[in-house]
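About this split. The held-out portion is used to measure sequence recovery: a designer receives only the structure tokens and must propose an amino acid at every position. Recovery is the fraction of positions where the proposal matches the reference. Here is one held-out target exactly as it appears in the evaluation file.
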């Protein structure tokens, strides 16, 4: 074996130096006769591969060189353990930023939810705030926010095409309808119209895949590490976020007046160029409930698909200017998400009473 040979070489060098220090007391096996060249010896390799003793090299350095050469020798392949088919688990960064907050003792009967104080970006209440969850049509807030970068003009006309059609919910727009970009924007946010949202994306000149890529890039730039989108409408289960990140994003999105105005519109109506009247009612039932108790609603967005359950994000403010965002993800009914939102609003603004 090569490694034992290296050890033998080291021992021989030790014996050599001992013989120089104490002549006649040390003998070398195999009839080896060293050449006396000094009290300090070194080791080097000859052209033939033999190991020679050479002058003027520190003995300790020689030992280190031999050990290093031995370590560099290739080792035989070891049997590998069978790999385990388990995903790597990584804690979301947001969990490391702040602990779950619950200053209320309230047991929220929904899968996930938060109250976010927009003034200091802190959670007043949280239930599974960092668990990823499908967000359904809350996706349309992200779509509207991204669209504003590539708006071709509110008065620009677009003809609805067959490829714009999306299933899910009532169909309001059909192939051949000529509508303005503003109408598509409002239909998307007021009534959560899927076909209008697809056409709105197309009006930017980007394909949906390109638009979604841009959405995810913007999400990354905003530091939302647990949010991923795979379509711009919100029909796919792969559109995921967390209650915390939905709330953080809503603080930004609803600060845009274009988005806020649309999300506060109870009913939107327009006439297509061929003369057809189109009308849509808001999916946000809380628009009929506020102002209430000195608290006003500043905007919001609903979402529902089977896997997500009933979802809602809303922004509110009291007369003192305290702004919060509430998020409900995974309520068990349409009316339930709004009742739970009211409860969260009461918990926050009633905390000092």
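Reference sequence for scoring:
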């Amino acid at each position: 074996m090569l490694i034992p040979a290296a050890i033998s070489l080291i021992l021989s060098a030790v014996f050599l130096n001992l013989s120089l220090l104490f002549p006649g007391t040390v003998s070398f096996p195999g009839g080896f006769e060293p050449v006396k060249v000094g009290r300090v010896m070194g080791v080097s390799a000859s052209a033939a591969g033999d190991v020679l003793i050479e002058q003027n090299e520190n003995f300790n350095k020689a030992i280190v060189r031999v050990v290093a050469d031995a370590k560099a020798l290739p080792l035989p392949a070891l049997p590998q353990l069978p790999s385990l088919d388990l995903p790597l688990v990584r804690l979301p960064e947001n969990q490391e930023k702040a602990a779950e907050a619950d200053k209320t003792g309230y047991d929220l009967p929904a899968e996930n939810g938060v109250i976010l104080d927009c003034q200091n970006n802190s959670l007043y209440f949280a239930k599974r705030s960092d668990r990823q969850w499908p967000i359904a049509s809350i996706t349309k807030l992200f779509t509207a926010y991204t669209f504003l970068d590539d708006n071709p003009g509110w008065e620009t006309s677009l003809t609805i095409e067959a490829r714009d059609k999306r299933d899910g919910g009532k169909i309001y727009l059909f192939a051949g309808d000529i509508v303005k970009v503003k109408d598509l924007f409002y239909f998307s946010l007021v009534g959560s119209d899927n076909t209008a949202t697809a056409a709105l994306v197309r009006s930017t000149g980007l394909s949906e895949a390109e638009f979604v890529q841009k959405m995810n890039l913007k999400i990354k730039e905003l530091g939302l590490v647990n949010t991923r989108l795979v379509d711009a409408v919100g029909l796919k289960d792969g559109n995921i976020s967390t209650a915390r990140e939905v709330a953080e994003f809503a603080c930004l999105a609803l600060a845009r007046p274009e988005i806020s105005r649309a999300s506060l519109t109870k009913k939107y109506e327009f006439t297509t160029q061929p003369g057809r009247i189109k009308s849509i009612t808001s999916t946000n039932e809380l628009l009929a409930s506020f102002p209430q108790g000195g608290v006003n609603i500043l905007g919001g967005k609903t979402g529902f698909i089977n896997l997500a359950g009933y979802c809602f994000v809303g922004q509110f403010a009291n007369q003192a200017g305290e702004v919060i965002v509430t998020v409900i993800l995974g309520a068990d009914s349409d009316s339930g998400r709004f009742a739970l939102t009211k409860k969260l609003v009461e918990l926050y603004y009633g905390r000092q009473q």
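Annotator remark: Residues 1-57, 75-99 have pLDDT under 50 and may be disordered.
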